[in-house]
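@channel anyone free to eyeball this complex?
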Amino acid sequence: MAGSSIGTVFKVTTWGESHGAGIGAVVDGCPAGLPLDEEYIQTYLDRRKPGGRDFSTPRKEEDKVKILSGVFEGKTTGTPISLMIENTSQRSGDYGNLATTWRPGHADYGFDVKYGFRDYRGGGRSSGRETAARVAAGAVAMRILEQYGIEVHAWVSAIGPVVCDPDRFDADELQRNPFSMPDAQAAAKAEAYLKELMLEKDSTGSEVTCIATGVPAGIGEPVFDKLDARLGQAIFSIGAVKAVEIGDGKAVVRARGSENNDPFRIRNGKVVKTTNHAGGILGGISDGSDILIRASFKPTPSIFQEQQTVNRDHEEVDLAIKGRHDPVIGPRAAVVVEMMTAMTLADLLLIRMTNRLD
Amino acid sequence: MAGSSIGTVFKVTTWGESHGAGIGAVVDGCPAGLPLDEEYIQTYLDRRKPGGRDFSTPRKEEDKVKILSGVFEGKTTGTPISLMIENTSQRSGDYGNLATTWRPGHADYGFDVKYGFRDYRGGGRSSGRETAARVAAGAVAMRILEQYGIEVHAWVSAIGPVVCDPDRFDADELQRNPFSMPDAQAAAKAEAYLKELMLEKDSTGSEVTCIATGVPAGIGEPVFDKLDARLGQAIFSIGAVKAVEIGDGKAVVRARGSENNDPFRIRNGKVVKTTNHAGGILGGISDGSDILIRASFKPTPSIFQEQQTVNRDHEEVDLAIKGRHDPVIGPRAAVVVEMMTAMTLADLLLIRMTNRLD
Amino acid sequence: MAGSSIGTVFKVTTWGESHGAGIGAVVDGCPAGLPLDEEYIQTYLDRRKPGGRDFSTPRKEEDKVKILSGVFEGKTTGTPISLMIENTSQRSGDYGNLATTWRPGHADYGFDVKYGFRDYRGGGRSSGRETAARVAAGAVAMRILEQYGIEVHAWVSAIGPVVCDPDRFDADELQRNPFSMPDAQAAAKAEAYLKELMLEKDSTGSEVTCIATGVPAGIGEPVFDKLDARLGQAIFSIGAVKAVEIGDGKAVVRARGSENNDPFRIRNGKVVKTTNHAGGILGGISDGSDILIRASFKPTPSIFQEQQTVNRDHEEVDLAIKGRHDPVIGPRAAVVVEMMTAMTLADLLLIRMTNRLD
Amino acid sequence: MAGSSIGTVFKVTTWGESHGAGIGAVVDGCPAGLPLDEEYIQTYLDRRKPGGRDFSTPRKEEDKVKILSGVFEGKTTGTPISLMIENTSQRSGDYGNLATTWRPGHADYGFDVKYGFRDYRGGGRSSGRETAARVAAGAVAMRILEQYGIEVHAWVSAIGPVVCDPDRFDADELQRNPFSMPDAQAAAKAEAYLKELMLEKDSTGSEVTCIATGVPAGIGEPVFDKLDARLGQAIFSIGAVKAVEIGDGKAVVRARGSENNDPFRIRNGKVVKTTNHAGGILGGISDGSDILIRASFKPTPSIFQEQQTVNRDHEEVDLAIKGRHDPVIGPRAAVVVEMMTAMTLADLLLIRMTNRLD
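replying in thread with the prediction:
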């Protein structure tokens, strides 16, 4: 099992490399009768597109999704939904020494050791491009969540030292700047910072924050399929993620129980928590509050500075990566975090249907 | 699927509640021919035992493991290994209002919503006691890793504001203090801090650090079963974990690519990385360096202060939890982090055998 | 994965050998709130017991099941149900040359090649005794099916040349003869035949027929998890089964479409089929008719005649198996067929809940 | 989980309906480094093509397979292999009353009950056309088996009352007649029989026999993933199969142990069985002999006679199916049986690699 499937009931399998015929996903286990068309899925894919300007790779993929199966007369049929995105702008193939030299910060070395060789074109299977297939599949999960009034939203909350101020959170701002930041001031600072980095042929880390609202209590299974455990796998499966936090995350180390415990109260006849340090998950099961997730992305490993590395002949060499690469990963990855969250919730929501017979 | 199994080839299923007949694990897919006996497994279980003194719950479980199947004449047979630990000190049953009142910071509410009721004795299935079964199963994984020269070690690196100094790391110290801290000065400070907290009827968060050495390059599958993704699920499946970090973890947000990328070099004829910001995983695949993991544990939610909460009748009530509870989770959880790491590595090591035919 | 688990949502894992501490099963994914106790499960286990008299192995196992977890105050909690049956009558251990000699018709040779050695005591993991754990787990599945008005019944329909006459089918007869045959005349003939075989130190094949009534239409998934495909795996996983048939089974080879197609009609306002050649499954999905299954069991391979075989040193030897062995497998296996059917239906019933959101 | 995946390590997911954009398969877990190209796969697909003449449906699909991912420079990369076959001859869409009327012998009714509606074009997901995707995926499995010297061959052994004589088995004959029969005399009789049936607007059942040679001993896991159990699922997952037999199959019911047990002997220094009643599988594990499988296919349910049935409004109606349909399923299904066998063997061969560490 090359690990290309995720989920138990709502099961997503992705395939494809950066430079083959295309990439795609098969979504198995989607309930029948949901409205679904290519336009709906495309909306999400478009959010993953290179943002334009100087800050993201100008490769002009159209990333047009096609539904190849599983939808009939505008509705899901309950059978597998095959989604495909053709690779339209395959470079003609001058990869220089990338076939034989291991890029620092990339999976090249691991692939070569593991499989004996690798598809070195554009990162092959570990290209960020693989995530487009996840976004397409995640859109199907979103359709399920919509039926339950669940929304999932992710944005960039930090780029290097530039951190968004929650008090300035403005959802409209997300479309206005190329960084998916909800804070115009932070976005302006991030822009300046990135320009500086690009002059220095360098890149920066970033943080993505994700919130799921409307998730009912009772989602997630008690032990290994805890909601946070499944989110942990889903979010860490996105390349470049080095930390995942739920609720207060890393800050809990210094917290006291008396402040970290969220009191339950009754508001308008409903059970609520008056705080949400837990990020909506207690004992692996949703508690009815918002699910709060943060993911830390490492800096883009492809930088234009000369780097020390080694090649397949075990010679030490210097490598200068060419081409164009985003200097920061978060802005294009935010929608991927959103989608991995959506898939996880959809799967556990369906499993939850089987928890009781009544 | 109540989510009680983890792993694809090396597959662990746990069962049991705090106060039933016992708890246990079934390990399926362990290769045949490995030496295994109860003493070996017991060594790990003993590390999970209440540390004694004032700092951990004095429930005197013996936690003696029995091997019920899968081992013949001292060797694993390739068939399922059933491990059982009897519950010997079941309290006679005065749980007061815990049957009807939801403890803040616990899964009680989620369980009640999900299943309609719950086994309220001692936390039921979401009791920390369930982890004893994981430790027993993890010991089997350790036996596999030993054959490859892989070691996994975890310790407490922070308790509240008290942080171990890596420069004072002393492995021998781990057995000397009840906190599994490798730094005697930090342990002394932690002791003082915990005493203070206990007077205040409070608890604190903590951090566990885990390292796996000797892991060959090439472990982990490219997409959803990335080594870090699978570790993410495994570590988050431990109750009370709110953040998981690999390598530099959360610090990557502020890092630059030029400093975060680990250069490859040749040392003694072997490929090495001269730094290890990546924590031994690139693109989801091990790179031959040490695997570095950190887990942030929230403060013990069972505190003796009176807390605001709600009961099954949706009445607001005040709850004062009785009994004895550890004021910090990390010291007893360190070995659990170690074991979840070991299971994950063992599974992906076995899967790796199928990556090539030669 | 040593293949000791079956099912997707309702998932059963069995463990144990003939001569270890015991055998057992973990049932994960059982919905919460079902009434369950040891007495209920025991009813099924008792049906698997050696029938007594001369026709089955006189090993006096009590086969008393214990529920170790997952049930609280008489109801399933939604967490894993651990079931254990202790091995009480372990023979003291003179297995003669069975440790080194491969019994014809048994898995001994395969085990030795596969694992390098095997637990040779009483058949080890491939002992018929393993099926007791399945029966215990299957009883839990039966509890689920009961809630839907589904019943599953199996009986012996043939022993060697002696075939039950459907026109003489008498359910009460099943308890009266030691062969689980529903036809008294056939049972009498079978008794005579088996006596003759035992004098000749020989054994015979047999056939088990199973019917599931009350199964609603719509159970089973379209492609690889067709109801008949999943039943195929479940029934063939019982040792000694060499053929599985659904509905008319093997007879369809000679049938014509015009006679094999079952017409749909309306009776009392409901859709019915006026015949049931399909055995209740069309295109892998239940059609609302009775599910009809037949399993062909080979003759007991342990016979007392001297047989030609080979030992671990690759020497040709003659083997005379000692001890006592049933001369026919069907009578004790009927309840196992019933239970594997029940598990399969329970799993697919739960999965079916996720087919639509409304 | 809509059940569209099969296998644990070598995992195949199929997608697609008769009349969408196409059908396809994703093969995950194929080892790296195997030579693979479209021509190789096409060879197998061509065997599934309508045989021509009067005996199979004249729909002129080209069934040209495309490899969309997972192969680089002629070799598998270890990442998912996406295979697609476009649907080129979609009928323009007069399905008459098939949208609302349930064809006897088909899954229509089950689909409607299960999902609320169905893609009624050409059988939708339960069309025989789905098996083309399996054949493409199975070809990849065949590549793996080749490395071990394993061959899998299937043919039609009976059409209605016409049974091939094993003594006249002639492999060359398989390509000469349109029925995939290895016996020219039987093929001639089958032709006469089918002509007669077609005049009567009727169809017939058939039997496919499959043999796998070169399978080493030790393949298959002891309990639920027995080789025969996994074959049982795989073969029953092919539409229209109503019986699966291993070795002597159904004949074992009448057999005696003394004749059914295959003696082990040493020939040329190797362990062999002098007979093969077991069909190469003992206790669920391969024994080094040929694997022998038989599948019974029901008559094509689409016949041109008027049939009694019911429509979605629960009205009794008469249905006359139009179009062209094969009067017998076996000839085109033989290669599918072969391929499901190959996938099963490939998966269990890879799992077998993890049975021991040495």
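from a first look: Residues 145 and 346 of chain A are 6 Å apart (CA to CA).
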